[in-house]
Amino acid sequence: MKIALLGYGRMGKTIEKLAQERGHEIVKTIDANDDYDFNGAEVAIDFSVPTAAVANISACLNANVPVVSGTTGWLDHYDEMVALCKKNNGGFIYASNFSVGVNIFFELNKQLAKMMQGLKDYNVSMTEVHHIHKLDAPSGTAITLAEGILEHSDKTDWVLDAEENDKISIKAEREGEVPGTHIINYGSQVDEITIEHRAHNRNGFALGAIIAAEWLKDKTGVYSMKDVLNLS
Ligand SMILES: NC(=O)C1=CN([C@@H]2O[C@H](COP(=O)(O)OP(=O)(O)OC[C@H]3O[C@@H](n4cnc5c(N)ncnc54)[C@H](O)[C@@H]3O)[C@@H](O)[C@H]2O)C=CC1
Ligand SMILES: O=C(O)C1=N[C@H](C(=O)O)C[C@H](O)C1
């Protein structure tokens, strides 16, 4: 498969290595200030920066190159990208986290939220820990987890680094080179329940994005990682 990479940083380089090991060819890398020349790519993978994601995804869709985006921090514009994809009859997948483990964790989180619904003695909160270079907070993954809890909760929204009774408190910690840790806690006066996902490195994110690109290559439409992994 011929792949164009948008963003050639930590994730771009990890994807390049794993994609080549799976027999794929990186035909183009596009970083800041590079032209949108896709050089015959059959699929594009965008892991860039929050301020570049919309332009990058639009450029792929306008060039009829299906695009997988893992960039976080731009989701206010998600509906615009969905509309552009549909208008162009293109292919598009966004996921806040492409790792198989986190996508299972997303489902576990929703199941737990469902079980805890109505148990007023417990208060839910979340902590995410990432490396010091991360530009956005909270992480895209933490936002997806919060949305999963909100589906089954009386809480009205999430709030970053603050405590409000009717909101899910998300604490964002930045520490060294941590690849990504997400912790959900239900605490009461008598006990607490904690679930945690801890990435050991970036390979899981990168492999998931490559699997999504392999799956999307010949498809049109807007999909999620749940479609790719066939999670019910
Ligand atoms: N969905 C997922 O599974 C994961 C998502 N991420 C997200 O992916 C993004 C990238 O993460 P990292 O690789 O760690 O960051 P990074 O900072 O190492 O790499 C970003 C790269 O994008 C480049 N860039 C800046 N402007 C650009 C533009 N206009 N077009 C193309 N490239 C441009 C930068 O020069 C840099 O090389 C972040 O938003 C991060 O949150 C990271 C890991 C997993
Ligand atoms: O910036 C990162 O590194 C990561 N970003 C994603 C996010 O914002 O959720 C996924 C992962 O946690 C690593």
UniProtKB/TrEMBL annotation:
Pathway(s) served: Amino-acid biosynthesis; L-lysine biosynthesis via DAP pathway; (S)-tetrahydrodipicolinate from L-aspartate: step 4/4
One GO cellular component, as annotated: cytosol
Positions of (S)-2,3,4,5-tetrahydrodipicolinate binding: 131, 140-141
Leading EC class: oxidoreductase
Gene3D superfamilies tied to this protein: Dihydrodipicolinate Reductase, domain 2, NAD(P)-binding Rossmann-like Domain
Main subcellular localisation: cytoplasm
InterPro entries the record matches: DapB_C, DapB_N, DHDPR_bac, NAD(P)-bd_dom_sf
Binding site residues for NAD(+): 70-72, 95-98
Active-site residues from the entry: 130 (proton donor/acceptor), 134 (proton donor)
Pfam families hit by this protein: DapB_C, DapB_N
Domain Dihydrodipicolinate reductase N-terminal residues, every copy: 1-98
EC number: 1.17.1.8
Protein family: Belongs to the DapB family.
Protein name: 4-hydroxy-tetrahydrodipicolinate reductase
Source organism of this protein record: Leeuwenhoekiella palythoae
Taxonomic classification: Bacteria, Pseudomonadati, Bacteroidota, Flavobacteriia, Flavobacteriales
Gene of this entry: dapB
